[in-house]
Design brief:
The structure holds two protein chains of two kinds.
Chain A (H helix, E strand, L loop, with lengths): L1 E9 L5 E10 L4 E6 L5 H5 L10 E6 L2 E2 L5 H5 L2 E4 L12 H11 L4 H14 L15 H13 L5 E5 L7 H16 L3 E5 L3 H7 L2 E6 L2 E7 H5 L2 H6 L6 H8 L12 H16 L5
Parallel strand pairs in A: 3-8, 3-9, 6-7, 7-8
Antiparallel strand pairs in A: 1-2, 1-4, 4-5, 9-10
Chain B lengths: L3 H4 L9 H4 L2 H17 L3 H17 L3 H24 L4 H24 L2 H10 L4 H30 L9 H6 L2 H24 L18 H23 L6 H6 L8 H7 L4
Helix pairs in contact in B: 3-6, 3-11, 4-6, 5-6, 7-8, 8-10
Chain lengths: 278, 273
Amino acid sequence: MIEVEGLVFRYPNGFEALRGVDLRIGDGEFVAIMGENGAGKTTLVKHFNGLLKPTLGRVLIDGVDTRDASVAELARSVGLVFQNPDRQLFSETVREEVAFALRNFGFSEEIVSKRVERILGMLDLSEYADTSPFLLSGGERKRVALASVLVWDPKHVILDEPTIGQDHLQKERLRDFIMQINDQGKTVVIVTHDVEFVAEAKPRVVLMSKGEIVGDGRAEEVLSDRDLVDRASLIRPQISELADSLSDKGLPRGLIDAYSARSAILRLLRERHVPELP
Amino acid sequence: MSLSFLEGLRFARVDSPLHRADPRAKFAMALSFFASSLIFTNALALLALFALQIPIALMGRIARRWARSLRGGAFLAILIFLMNFLTGQGASFSIAMSLRFFCLLSSFSIFFLTTSPDDLGLALEQCKIPYAISFTFTTAVRLVPTMAMDAQEIIDAQRSRGLELERGKLLRRVRNYIPILVPLIVCAIRRSLEMAEALESRAFGASERRTSLIALRMGAGDFAIVALSIALLASSIYISRSFQMPSLEALDSLLSFKWGFAQPAALGRIPKA
């Protein structure tokens, strides 16, 4: 359980990045934190493993105040994957890179190699195990960064902009992967601008703007709300725009993905045609 | 872990007589302090040299940031003290070396805090330094804060993967920095390659002679700064050569550190070739 209570955070230069945030994320939830650039999304998630400590208010991870624990202790249960893989890769091989955290946490070599092989397999990276991470493509480096955190099996997984620099196929795989680990009971929190990705995955959406939470609810509710989405400088999913423009023809609002739009349109067509049948 | 040390070398956009002064005059002043602190090995003289810079920092209205950069350098200063002291250099000399480091840091901190990168580039250009060189220099200065941000991000990422910088013995602690330094260097190289491409696609170096909109002109105040800087350097040389400075050598007998074997004595017995 991640609990944020009255969180205010001020950077040393005086900028108030978070202005009173209250948020509760239960175990096993799937949450997307969205909002404009500088809304405070990354600042918020950096509180989840204690990289930043609250100026006011508090953050509890499974009941432990982040002020009372070191980053390394919190990281055991909160795995934070950063946006830019280039700002963390340093090892000579992908295998070493992925093993880094396990060694920091003091796992035995036997467990280290077992876990590394397993996660490399899960993320389609086995063939690169002995390659230098610097020789991989952007998308592959991003997956190495993901593997290097998921390898220690943290209970809560936080992904900062996981879809940036990924082609469509990789995004789809990433979505399946996120759903899969979420089904296994992990809490998954993603920070993203990618409206279409969220529309398809349909997590709970927490919308932030200027250091505050302005919307919180099911993806269908939050992403189809024009005013709310405007306020966070996002654009609604294309399907949502379409559903709105056809609402006078009887298409329900709150549609955000192609699949549900398809069934709604089919239903509509069927209803229209039935009376004309003899 | 903070990078306040680098923060103290970043230009502060405030208005003060020192900010308005000609960058060349300020550079002369920084060089004069720099050279003077290399002349002395006496703790009291270096302390005086350091004290001289306090009113300058106050005049430039950058005292707080200046102090922050010194605080950031404190760790290195302590390291310098220990390195000297533990190798048998004596307390007064070790203190002097730490003070010298503060003087050097302070002189350049004042220069960079009060000189905008634009002024710096202008000054270099008007000293007839080729544009490619002056551009490289100003870009390096400009990139310092960007690299500081990179470093912070890298530190955050590695700490999130369980790296504890402050854990272990000295050697382990030094090794802890490898996961920080490698990505930092890789990022810097990547960035410079990208920058080179961007510059070339914007026709960098197409014209041999560049003219600039703003011309620097030395005023009376600037000449005064240069004159005072020369005076400082000259008197430093004079004082160090002709006076026996009162020293803190009394400290040496109070505070002494010796390894199991007596180094200096042993060295003294080696016959000269």
